[in-house]
Design goal:
214 residues, alpha/beta, 5-stranded parallel sheet, single chain, Rossmann fold, globular
Length: 214
């Protein structure tokens, strides 16, 4: 049976669009293959701690002599890495927080990016699909004053696509603040359209990847 690892990192448990989009991918994947197994981690409700020791950045064989990370921290890292390696597809809800990655998601990343274990040169994750659903409060259009201010998606592409060698799919919706910020009110229509298009793409992506992971 194929396995999907579903992660969410939004602090908004009720109206989060990144959560809504990630769930749409998962729902479509399960619709296409009801035998699939979903492993769920809510990184906001049940946060992963920061790395307890710098030696955990490395595989045991590559650590500096004398390294002695806490046993419970090493066990948690092994659990997180094994969970990732066992997944046929990964779906991550990743809202843009202060122009970057939510700290809850970053802590998880610091645990699972281990050279010699999950890095692309090992082949352990190469070609495996990862879907990133991201929501942004404003727009970051080319040519606008905020162009290039989104430092989350480029970093996630570098990590998952470059360092881990995974097959990265990004689904984005912007202007999530349009309904609550007066200055953005003229763009409510665009906000709603982007969400509708993103939900459609999420469903399409889930269905398509279900065939690939069956």
């Amino acid at each position: 049976m194929p396995t999907l690892l579903h992660l969410d990192s939004s602090a908004d448990l009720t109206t989060s669009r990144s959560r809504r989009l990630s769930q749409a991918v998962v729902d479509a994947w399960l619709t296409a293959d009801p035998t699939g197994v979903v492993v769920r981690r809510d990184l906001h409700r049940d946060p992963v701690p920061h790395l307890a020791d710098s030696s955990l950045h490395w595989a045991p064989a590559d650590r500096v002599e004398g390294s002695n990370p806490p046993a419970e921290a090493e066990e948690l890292q092994r659990e997180l890495v094994d969970e990732l390696l066992a997944a046929d597809i990964v779906v991550i809800g990743a809202p843009l927080y202060n122009f970057s990655i939510p700290s809850s998601l970053k802590a998880w990343i610091d645990h699972i990016h281990v050279p010699g274990v999950t890095s692309a040169d090992t082949g352990s994750l190469v070609g495996r699909p990862v879907v990133i659903t991201t929501s942004r409060g404003i727009a970051y259009d080319i040519g606008s004053p905020t162009e290039g201010w989104d430092h989350e998606v480029p970093a996630l592409r570098t990590l998952f696509g470059g360092a881990l060698g995974m097959d990265v799919h990004v689904i984005t919706t912007s202007l999530t603040l349009a309904e609550r910020e007066a200055a953005l009110a003229p763009q409510i229509g665009r906000s709603e359209q982007e969400l509708a298009e993103a939900l459609s793409l999420a469903t399409e992506t889930g269905l398509r990847l279900a065939v690939a992971t069956a």
